[in-house]
Amino acid sequence: xxxxxxxxxxxxxxxxxxxxxxxxxxxxxxxxxxxxxxxxxxxxxxxxxxxxxxxxxxxxxxxxxxxxxxxxxxxxxxxxxxxxxxxxxxxxxxxxxxxxxxxxxxxxxxxxxxxxxxxxxxxxxxxxxxxxxxxxxxxxxxxxxxxxxxxxxxxxxxxxxxxxxxxxxxxxxxxxxxxxxxxxxxxxxxxxxxxxxxxxxxxxxxxxxxxxxxxxxxxxxxxxxxxxxxxxxxxxxxxxxxxxxxxxxxxxxxxxxxxxxxxxxxxxxxxxxxxxxxxxxxxxxxxxxxxxxxxxxxxxxxxxxxxxxxxxxxxxxxxxxxxxxxxxxxxxxxxxxxxxxxxxxxxxxxxxxxxxxxxxxxxxxxxxxxxxxxxxxxxxxxxxxxxxxxxxxxxxxxxxxxxxxxxxxxxxxx
Length: 414
Fold this sequence. Notes:
The chain is mainly β. It has a domain at about 200-414. Helices cover about 15% and strands about 45% of the residues. The protein has five helices and 35 strands. The protein has helices at about 1-25, 25-30, 40-45, 65, 395-410; strands at about 50-55, 75-80, 80-85, 85-90, 95-100, 105, 110, 115-125, 130-135, 140-150, 155-160, 160-165, 170, 175-180, 185-195, 200-205, 205-210, 215-220, 225-230, 230-235, 240, 250-255, 255-260, 265-270, 275-280, 280-285, 290-295, 305, 310-320, 325-330, 335-340, 350-355, 355-360, 370, 375-380. Mean pLDDT is about 90; it is low at about 1-35 and about 390-395.
């Protein structure tokens, strides 16, 4: 048990340290000049003037590939018409910008080992693999871009820095956004809709941030937002809407962390649990500043917490009208403060089993079910112990199999 706790602590401490560094570098949050480092360099770059501008009208037979061969310290390529074919960017300081509402690339864009890249005001359709692939220690701002019907992924990031603003990804064949060993920041209003498998996947030691106003919607996939495999999501400002996904709204699993702050989150009408935290993972507020959550109408549990994981919800949270138990905790640690429950199915509002620990303070709670192995403190107490209430014996093994299948699908996305 001690080894498991140390793994969880290392994930959480790392997440908080990285988040405080991000906040310290955000002029939008602190209202003062920010140091120029990491993704912040892209903001500075976006305000610079091009040393050379090349106009490309693909409807007249001109090509972006040809324009990329032009010299210039900061090359801006202004695109109109429909450009057909895949594109590779492997030089620094390039801006691709659409100059008419119909500016379209039929194909995919691959950014390979290039920094200070901006892709703006474009539609990208029918990419044979990824709409935009960001590979090999690249740095990119993607702004006001629509990626429609990519065969596999809307955005693939590997070992790179990605800044998103006002992005739309529709109908990705597998994953809307997939990042491995990346730092990615979400700004503005983003919509990741109807992906074949998962909406957003943060994996393999990646860090995702939302520290400015805006809202990201992940809907119509198997799972809306996944953080897994020693990765961290820090959703400190803005909103996250994870509704109408067929398996789960938000999944945090396998030594991962989801940190929430002044955000507003809706996790409604998903086909399984709304929020699922599993396998040595943490879902916690930043210090005392928790998000506002509505978790309702999910076919399974409102929140499912299991296998040596930790979850804390602090104030302004409602968990209601879920088909399963409002909050189900198995072999994990729970802290609730100011959470309102109502009209949940399963065994009621909160279920604690298999050695779970829970702290309750000032919640509106109707039904609390415990087996004989749990410890509870605060202003709630367990009723006399009853039988284990997690369901049939196959339930936990079925969840483990589901997580394994999720990992396999993501591992095969290359």
